[in-house]
Amino acid sequence: MEDSRVMASEILRSFEIHVFSKIGKLPHDEVTLHVWLALIEDVAKRTPSIGARILTYSKRAHKWAVRRGIQWAGCE
C-alpha cells in the first residue's frame, strides 16, 4: 500500500510541474487533443518516462470521469 502512495505522489508532482502549470486554468472543453499532444510531446522530448506517465494517467482519469458522467468545472 505504501508503494501506491509513493507512486501517487510522483504522479501528482508530474502533473503539478508539467500539466497544471500549462493548462490547469483552462476549461476542460477548451483543451483540445492538439493542446494535449503538444504538451506531452514537449515533455517526452526532455524526459520520455514522464511524458509516458502523463499520457497514461491523464487518459485513465478522463475515462474514469466519463464513465461516471462527471461534468467538468464550468459546465452546466
Automatic annotation (TrEMBL):
Keyword terms: DNA-binding
Give GO MF terms, alphabetically. Answer: DNA binding
Q: Does the keyword DNA-binding apply?
A: yes
Supply the InterPro entries for this chain. Answer: DNA_brk_join_enz (IPR011010), Integrase_recombinase_N (IPR010998)
Return the protein name. Integrase
Q: Which organism is it from?
A: Xenorhabdus bovienii str. feltiae Moldova
